[in-house]
Design goal:
The complex is a heterodimer of chains A (391) and B (368).
Chain A (H helix, E strand, L loop, with lengths): L6 H17 L11 H16 L18 H13 L8 H14 L2 H13 L4 E4 L15 E7 L2 E14 L6 E7 L10 E7 L5 E6 L8 E12 L3 E2 L5 H13 L6 H17 L1 H4 L3 H29 L9 H22 L17 H10 L7 H12 L6
Parallel strand pairs in A: 1-4
Antiparallel strand pairs in A: 2-3, 3-7, 4-5, 5-8, 6-7
Helix pairs in contact in A: 1-3, 3-7, 4-5, 4-6, 7-9, 7-10, 9-10, 10-11, 10-12
Chain B lengths: L6 H17 L2 H8 L7 H9 L18 H13 L6 H13 L5 H13 L4 E4 L6 E2 L6 E6 L2 E6 L4 E6 L6 E6 L7 E3 L1 H40 L1 E2 L2 E2 L4 H29 L5 H27 L10 H12 L5 H12 L17 H13 L1
Parallel strand pairs in B: 1-3
Antiparallel strand pairs in B: 2-6, 3-4, 4-7, 5-6, 8-9
The chains are: A alpha+beta (391), B alpha+beta (368).
Chain lengths: 391, 368
């Protein structure tokens, strides 16, 4: 056991810190769930890419730095420490990219990864449908393969929903039923869809905060070139499960995000201690928040160091999602208790460098639901990690 | 960054696990509970045969010279099997105190080889605990007096037995008189030694609590898989599954906190006490949740003397308050986290504070 950074890791941290200090916008960007904010965030992705910081774990040949997971954690720590903007292309860089690298053809990797890294392609997710939420194998949206003289394509008809970033994104990845009459997880394929194609209608869905962070996507005889199939036709479930694995696992929510919130919570408490201490349970919740953010960090380093040495992620990864989503709720609920009547005000946006508690509080409500609801995660833990019988 | 234990430490842990699986079945614990002393000389001899009494005694005194990282794995097993013995107090805490005595050559020579060979039991009396565990069978008692360390033989103290809900714990009020003759270490040197022992006891109990949590989870899983209602194992119902899944989450996120605390002890890091408190809180929470949820899954059986769960629950409840209860450790963490100028947040998890900054904080908190 050795819980120290190497000299090269320390040098890497310095390099990240120095670049971010020079380039992180002084004023916070507008929300990427507005047209203007989306454009600002896309420009930030391009800026990150210009310094080769947009996808540090990718190979150098496709725009990355070939960083291992420990370096990725260091990068994330510096990124959150610097108060840099949220990543509008998280769906692409952290969720789709690892799947592309595992299942994509060489041509697909060469085409998509550099454009993803530069922010030219911003990606949306296309998993859920009106009848397929937690029960993702109930997907019905059809993609029928047509072999025409001008080239093969998939003819897509149906609907996706809760599609994150879809309002302004360029592409969408998701699961479609390519075998007519198939059921459950058979006959599904993983397809990459340009959102500019004729026949696509995107209807924004307004969220709790009034903005349109996700959308419904309607497909009406949409022709997607067959080369945009990812992995084998009919094996989409396995490809998607790999994506879900990354999502549940390490890269969706780096611990630095929660450490930054925990630190902001400690500062908020200290600045309003006289009123906060009227309820002694608030101090306890602040200390617990810090402890849990530390525990999540230690656990992630533990897993990362195991993976770097050739280990693999098992079903225990499902514990991550429950842990960070409940921690995020605890921290933001505690902040709202400290803020009291100030908490509800939307017309006092946080100054530069301040945590947006109300925005964060609203977003924390979604944590236990997206990326596989916490109930689904508990089923996975009980059945695959603890070996309890299926219903 | 490397969270892995050495191959030797893992091999030691595995062999102790297999050994205790055979030698420390719940039926045997029940038999020991019924004895007057609550201790088994045969079990102690077997633990010594496994080398456990020699673990951290220096090689120069007949031991193996291992340390905190090996102990944390062993302590987890002692918790998993709810071992009713003073092994940890003798071979970990007392061995640490004795071998670090500044001028204790005679005491070291007297006691360390006999600790290593398993011949003696040593009790440790620290003011954070109201009572002294295992005083009755102790050949030697190491007792705190205004930060001094005093060494007394069993016949130099008077004992009054107290009864714990955990029949594996044998607790005593100890009456004794401090004198120049009993003092083996001054207050000046003793303060740091007592702190080091307290930190080690904290991490030891954290590890035992985590082992207990895992054992109670395992008992709950076994019961839920076997017990049928409505024609199915109750473990197939989500309402039952989710309770046990919550325990698994708590255990999963307590383990790295525990291992880091042991590492901080081994490396003598300035924040070792903070990490120890954090580990005890995290592991204690896991154990208390495991007790509650496993009992619920066991239904009425969980409330009986007959079901084995009770032995592990009672140990968890008792250990959670020992060597500093929840509020003690929470207050210590709060003082650290809420202090002026403390380094928190992304990138600071493995940072080691400057000794000077720490000293300033200590002075401030002492004068506050």
């Amino acid at each position: 056991m050795k819980l120290t950074y190497t000299a090269s890791q320390q040098a890497f941290r310095k390099e990240v810190r120095s670049w971010l200090a020079r380039h992180v916008p002084k004023q916070p960007l507008k929300s990427f769930d507005t047209a203007e904010g989306f454009a600002e965030h896309r420009a930030w992705e391009a800026k990150l890419h210009s310094g080769r910081w947009s996808a540090v774990t990718w190979p150098e040949s496709v725009g990355g730095r070939g960083c291992d997971l420990i370096e990725w954690l260091i990068f994330e720590e510096e990124y959150w420490r610097a108060g840099a903007p949220l990543r509008v292309n998280q769906n692409g860089v952290f969720l789709l990219a690892p799947t592309l690298m595992e299942f994509g053809t060489e041509a697909q990797k060469q085409h998509f990864l550099p454009r993803m890294a530069s922010g030219e392609h911003i990606w949306a997710q296309g998993w859920s449908e009106p009848g397929a939420g937690s029960d993702m194998a109930a997907i019905r949206c059809a993609a029928e393969r047509v072999d025409a003289p001008s080239g093969s394509y998939y003819l897509i008809n149906g609907q996706k929903t809760w599609s994150t970033r879809a309002v302004w994104a360029d592409w969408c990845f998701g699961l479609f039923r390519t075998e007519a009459g198939s059921t459950r997880h058979h006959g599904l394929s993983f397809v990459l869809v340009p959102l500019t194609l004729p026949g696509i209608t995107i209807r924004p869905i307004r969220q709790l905060n009034g903005l349109t962070g996700f959308a419904e996507i309607f497909f009406d005889d949409v022709k997607v070139p067959a080369e945009h199939l990812l992995g084998e036709e009919g094996s989409g479930w396995n490809v998607a499960m790999a994506t879900a694995g990354f999502e549940r696992g390490l890269m969706l929510r780096s611990p630095a995000r929660f450490q930054a919130t925990a630190k902001a919570l400690v500062e908020l408490y200290r600045s309003r201690r006289a009123s906060a201490d009227r309820d002694p349970s608030i101090r306890d919740a602040v200390v617990s928040s810090w402890m849990q953010a530390e525990a999540y960090t230690l656990s992630t380093y533990n897993t990362a160091s195991r993976l770097v040495q050739g280990g693999s992620i098992g079903p225990e990864a499902s514990t991550n999602k429950i842990f960070w989503s409940e921690l995020d709720l605890l921290m933001h609920e505690t902040a709202m208790r400290i803020l009291g009547q100030d908490g509800e005000l939307m017309d006092e946006p946080p100054a530069a460098g301040e945590h947006g508690w109300l925005d964060g509080f609203l977003f924390a409500q979604a944590g236990p639901i997206y990326a596989g609801s916490n109930e689904i995660q508990r089923n996975i833990i009980a059945e695959r990690m603890l070996g309890l019988p299926r219903a | 960054m490397d969270f892995d234990f050495s191959a030797d430490a893992i091999a030691l842990r595995d062999s102790i696990h297999r050994f205790l699986m055979v030698e420390a079945a719940p039926e045997m614990l029940r038999e020991i509970w019924e004895t007057a002393s609550g201790r088994s000389a045969a079990l102690r001899a077997k633990l010594a045969d496994q080398g456990l009494t020699a673990l951290s005694v220096p090689e120069s005194h007949g031991g193996m010279g291992l340390g905190d990282l090996e102990w944390v794995l062993v302590q987890y097993e002692l918790g998993y099997y709810a071992i009713p013995d003073s092994l940890s107090d003798t071979a970990y805490l007392a061995a640490h105190l004795l071998q670090h005595l500044p001028n204790g050559a005679a005491a070291k020579q007297d006691w360390l080889p006999r600790i290593a060979s398993g011949q003696v039991r040593v009790a440790v009396g620290h003011p954070v605990n109201r009572l002294v565990a295992d005083a009755e069978l102790a050949d030697l008692l190491l007792l705190w007096h205004a930060d001094e360390i005093h060494a007394l033989r069993r016949d130099q103290v008077q004992l009054a037995a107290r009864t714990s809900i955990d029949a594996s714990r044998r607790l005593f009020e100890v009456r004794w008189t401090a004198s120049d003759a009993t003092r083996i270490c001054s207050a000046q040197a003793g303060a740091a030694l007592w702190q080091a022992v307290h930190d080690r006891a904290t991490v030891a109990l954290a590890a035992q609590l985590l082992g207990l949590a895992q054992r109670m989870l395992d008992l709950g899983i076994d019961y839920a898989a076997q017990r049928k209602q409505f024609g199915k194992p109750i473990g197939s119902f989500q309402a039952v599954k989710h309770q046990l899944a919550d325990v698994a989450v708590k255990i999963e996120f307590a383990r790295p906190v525990l291992h880091r605390a042991a590492y901080a002890l081994a490396e003598q890091q300035p924040l070792a006490s903070i990490h120890a408190s954090q580990a005890k809180l995290a592991c204690g929470e896991a154990a208390l949740l495991a007790a509650r949820k496993s009992l619920q899954v066991h239904g009425a059986m969980g409330y009986t003397w007959e079901a084995d769960l009770q032995m592990f629950m009672k140990r968890a409840w008792a250990l959670d308050a020992s060597w500093g209860d929840r509020s003690f450790h929470k207050a210590r963490l709060a003082e650290h986290v809420l202090a002026d100028g403390v380094r928190l947040g992304p990138g600071e998890t493995f940072a080691i504070p400057e000794p000077a900054a720490r000293a300033t904080r200590a002075v401030r908190s002492a004068t506050a």
